[in-house]
Amino acid sequence: MLKVCHLNSPEGIETLCSDMEVDHTDVRILMLAWKMRAEKQGYFTLISIDAFSVHSLNLPGPVLSPWMLICALWLTVFHLFMEEWRHGLKSMRSDTVNKLKKALPDLEKEVKRPPNFVDFYNYAFRYCLTEEKQKSIDIESICQLLDLVLGSHFQAQVDYFIEYLKIQRDYKVINMDQWMGFYRFCNEISFPDFSNYNPELAWPLILDNFVEWMRAKRT
């Protein structure tokens, strides 16, 4: 049977990957995190203690000792963690490691459906925001994430964009708008001639720069 300990720490995730004979850097693990609605990298859990207060728990604050409050918070965290765990497994009809492994091909098909993939692509960025109030991701990590998430769909565009990101000096990080803009770019813009690219439209500036770089590279 699958156990909670599989998913409540980065080490547990690695153990689960080993049991399923899937590398922990495999995109299917990110797909599994998406399916489980995981919000913290390396953990399949929905919430942090900071998200709770005495009032949100509807508990009588004045009578709670610090120890009682800590216990109440952790019980709530554990309950929501279990709900996430149950939801994901139920939707995949998997209650053993072997069943979960066999469910991965169907999960891949589910993610690749256009509406789901947009959500997955968006999720992949948010999943990598590991710090509180973090809004952007460093270039090195973005390059790895692009190749992992989008490389199999738009390999040429991703390869050239990664090459550009590594040599340009204007941007040290990428934000969500730029991340989603590149996905729209891949879907809408003729490549590699960029014949329908209009810089006057609402494209992130980094994509204007990328197109200029590509055109100069091709001349």
From TrEMBL:
GO BP of this protein: protein neddylation
Domain DCUN1 span(s) in chain numbering: 1-215
A single GO molecular function term of this UniProt record: ubiquitin conjugating enzyme binding
Alphabetically ordered keywords of this record: Membrane, Transmembrane, Transmembrane helix
Gene Ontology terms: cellular component: ubiquitin ligase complex
Spans through the membrane: 64-82
Function: Neddylation of cullins play an essential role in the regulation of SCF-type complexes activity.
Official protein name in the record: Defective in cullin neddylation protein
